[in-house]
Amino acid sequence: MLHDTIYDAIYVGGAAVIFFAVPGLVTALADRRPLLPMSLMLAIGVAAMGWVWYLDPQIYALRNFPETTYRVFGAVWHSF
């Protein structure tokens, strides 16, 4: 249906934001720094992945994440 590269990139980008926000959130908790910036980044990543998953739950199921990542890397590789 909407198996487009832009949605793939949003999905993978959201996962990357989550990947970097979780350790930042844990570090902010340990260092007693404000949690708001990393909490917002985590919310943005979850919202991006959730929005794309909501649009097409079959293609963007979590079990298909590696395939989606390869599609994004392939599109980036092909553009160069």
| Total domain modules | 1
Strand content: under 5%
- Average pLDDT reading: 93
> What sort of overall outline do the alpha carbons produce when their principal axes are compared?
elongated
Major sheet summary line:
none
Helical content band: over 70%
**How do the helices and strands follow one another from N- to C-terminus?**
HHH
- Rg over CA atoms: 14 Å
Uncertain regions spanning at least 5 consecutive residues: none
Number of helices: 3
**Strand tally, please?**
0
Secondary structure class reads mainly alpha
| Gap from first CA to last CA | 27 Å
Structural overview:
This protein is mainly α and about 80 residues long. Helix content is about 80%, strand content about 0%. Helix 1 runs antiparallel to helix 2 (about 35-55). It is elongated and about 40 Å long.
